[in-house]
Each structure stands twice: as structure tokens, then as C-alpha cells.
Write a structure and sequence with these properties.
Strand content: 15-25%
CATH architecture: 3-Layer(aba) Sandwich
CATH topology: Rossmann fold
Order of helices and strands: EHEHEEEHEEEHEHEHH
Structural class: alpha/beta
Number of domains: 1
Strand order of the largest sheet: 1-10-9-2-3-7-6-8
CATH class: Alpha Beta
Length: 257
């Protein structure tokens, strides 16, 4: 088991489960992450693996996430994500929490709300990320315009003073210029991190490094884990560059003053 200092302020290229298992218990203050959504095993009118024509043919997620093809059998995907969340919980300090961004979808005509992934964990709140936009070629339901963030918290977790005024519906537009197939806007991890007093932030699905950039700009320590060497290189370049943080919404406290 390595000391946590060996991991700080680095993007580590490798399998997140293997890397997390090298890290000591109760060494992380906060996890902010968005795993692959496993969208390519769709049973409906969604994006199926191997689509070469039609409306989904040019979608960036057709190629998966570089070293992850995003089409695991559903039961295997659930077990994998539960294993990842179990490791994150082990790493969290007593007052730690996980902001776990995921997306609901319709499978076989019924909503799949990811409860089978998170039900065995202490979900304290579900935050709505209103992102607008989206895809839906199925006339059986409306186009989805939001994703969810599960706040999975240990008992002693508390928000920073007055940050609960942000509420549980966050409106941030999607990031359009990022080459990663499913980036979230930097305002999202920035909101998660600044709402706490956490000093060590982990993102085990680091992608293009957005969580690490937000942590760095807030003066916090970060640990990013990413399986794709290409995205690791992109993340390092972005961390060493400049990314503008949108001002976003005011808190209810700001509006009252």
C-alpha cells in the first residue's frame, strides 16, 4: 500500500480499480466522477454497438471511450460499478462524499434509473444536472435534457457554510469543444468541490481531466485516474493550460443579499 502523497496532483494512467486498491484507507476527502454510461448495449432505439449508418452513425460515442467500448452486459456493468463505488467508499475519510454523475435511460420501454448500481450505498440526495440538448429518435418518450448526480455521503459529511443554497437543480450547458465523447462542463465539478472544504479530490474516471482542472483552480489537491493514454495526455495538456470557469448561477444566499 502506497502513501497518498505518491498520488497527489497527478493523472495516473491505468485501470481505476487496480490503482484505487493501491491507495490507503480513508485518504480521500471527496470523489467527483462520471463513469462510462454503458449506452451502447441499448435494447431500444438508442445507440447500439456496431451502428454504421442512420442517425447515430456519427455520434462520438460510437467509438466508445478510447480503451472502453461502453457495451458491457448490463449485469456485469452493475457489478463493475458497485466494485468501483466500494473502493471509493473505502478511500473516503469519515466526512467524505462521492458526487456520482450518471444518466437514466429507457430500456425495453421502461426507465432504467441506475438504482441497481447505487441502492446498496448511502445516497443522501439526487441532484439534477439540467444540461439541455440531447438525443432521442424514439417517439415513445420525450428527449432527455438532464442527468443526475448521486450524492453518496458518509455520516459526517457536511457542505461548506452557506453552500446548501445552491439547491438540487443545477443548470450548466454541455461542453461542446472538448474532444472527449462525453465531457461534463467544468462548472459542474467546480460546483461540487467549492461546495465542500475537501482538500484531496479523486476522479477515478478522469477522462480529459475536467475535475482535476477545477480542483487545481480552487487550490485543492487532485488525483485523476484514466485508462486511456490518449485522454491522459489530453488531461495533462488541459491542466497545464487555461480553462475558463463560467460564473454559473447565484446561490439562494447570494440572491437574498
Amino acid at each position: 500500500m502506497k502513501q497518498i502523497d505518491n498520488f497527489l496532483n497527478k493523472i495516473i494512467c491505468g485501470d481505476c480499480l487496480k490503482i484505487m486498491r493501491q491507495m490507503p484507507d480513508e485518504s480521500i476527502d471527496l470523489v467527483v466522477t462520471s463513469p462510462p454510461y454503458n449506452l451502447k448495449n441499448s435494447t431500444g432505439n438508442g445507440m447500439k454497438a456496431g451502428t454504421k449508418s442512420g442517425r447515430w452513425a456519427n455520434n462520438p460515442l460510437q467509438n466508445g471511450y478510447a480503451h472502453h467500448d461502453d457495451q458491457m452486459p448490463h449485469n456485469e456493468y452493475v457489478v463493475w460499478q458497485q466494485d468501483c463505488l466500494t473502493e471509493m467508499m473505502r478511500l473516503l475519510k469519515d466526512a467524505g462524499a462521492i458526487f456520482y454523475n450518471h444518466k437514466w435511460r429507457v430500456q425495453g420501454g421502461l426507465i432504467q434509473d441506475r438504482a441497481d448500481v447505487v441502492n446498496s450505498f448511502p445516497v443522501r440526495q439526487i441532484i439534477i444536472w439540467k444540461r439541455a440538448g440531447g438525443f432521442n429518435f424514439n417517439p415513445g418518450y420525450f428527449v432527455p435534457t438532464y442527468e443526475v448526480i448521486y450524492l453518496i455521503a458518509k455520516p459526517k459529511f457536511k457542505l461548506a457554510p452557506q453552500k446548501n443554497g445552491y439547491g438540487d437543480v443545477w443548470e450548466f450547458p454541455q461542453e461542446m469543444k472538448n474532444k472527449h465523447p462525453a465531457p461534463f462542463p467544468i462548472a459542474l465539478p467546480f460546483r461540487c468541490i467549492e461546495s465542500t472544504e475537501a482538500q484531496i479530490i479523486l476522479d477515478p474516471f478522469s477522462g480529459s481531466g475536467t475535475t482535476a482542472i477545477a480542483a487545481k483552480q480552487l487550490g485543492r489537491n487532485y488525483i485523476g485516474i484514466e485508462i486511456s493514454p490518449e485522454y491522459c495526455e489530453t488531461a495533462e495538456s488541459r491542466i497545464n493550460g487555461t480553462v475558463t470557469i463560467p460564473t454559473g448561477e447565484n446561490t439562494l444566499f447570494d440572491l437574498a443579499n
